[in-house]
Design a protein that fits this description.
This protein is mainly α. It has seven helices and no strands. About 60% of the residues lie in helices and about 0% in strands. It is rod-shaped.
Amino acid sequence: MTKKWYNYFVSVQGDAANEESGAQPLVPAAKNAAQSVAEIAAGMAAEPQFTKPVSEPTSFEEIYRAAEIPEAPHGYSILSVAQMMESEHIRSLPSDVKRSSVLVGLEAAEVNIKDVIQDAIYRDRALDGYERVQQRALEELESAKSKENADLQADIDRYVTEQRAKIQANNEVIAREKERVTGWRLKKQQEEKKIAETVGYFVSENPISTGDLPAGLPVSKTAKKS
C-alpha cells in the first residue's frame, strides 16, 4: 500500500537529528529546489490570458479557472502544498524540517518541486493580471462617471444661471411697479389736495383725505369701483 506523504516525517525528523549530531543526512537535498525561480519563470508564458468572465472577483478559484491555469501535476498545486505546510503533522516543526518533509512527500508522490513553483507563478501572474483588469475597469468607470458628473454640474450651473436670471427679472418687475405706484401716489396727493382745497371753501370740516392710506386699511367699495 502506498504511503501517504506524512508517513515520511519520522525519517525526516531523524535526519534533522543526525544533522545536529554531525551524521550524514539520510534524505538528499532536492536538486530541483535549488533551481533559480527566475529560470523557471523564464520558461513560462509571460502572462495568463483571461478567456472567461469572472462573475465573483472574491473567488480566487474562479479567477484561476478564467485564466486557464494548467492543472497541477498529480494534483499537487502550490495551494495543496500550502495545506501540507499547515497540516497537524508538520505545522509545528522547524522551518528546515518542514521544508524537507514536504520535499520528501512530493518525491514520494513523484512530483517535481519545479512543477509546484510553476503552479505558484501561474497563480501569482493570474492574480496580478486580474488586478490590472480590475484597475483598468475602475479607471474606465471613474472616467465615465467623472464625465457624467461634469455634465450634471454643467446642467446645474446652467439651470442656476437661468433661475437667477428669472429672479432678477422678477425683482426688476417689482421695482418698476413700485416706482409706478409711488409716482401715482404723488399725483394722487396733488389731485386730493386740489379737491380738498376746493371743498374747503364750502364745509367747516373737510372730508377729503390728502395722504396715503394707512397700511392694512381696506380700500372702500367706492374706491374699488373707481
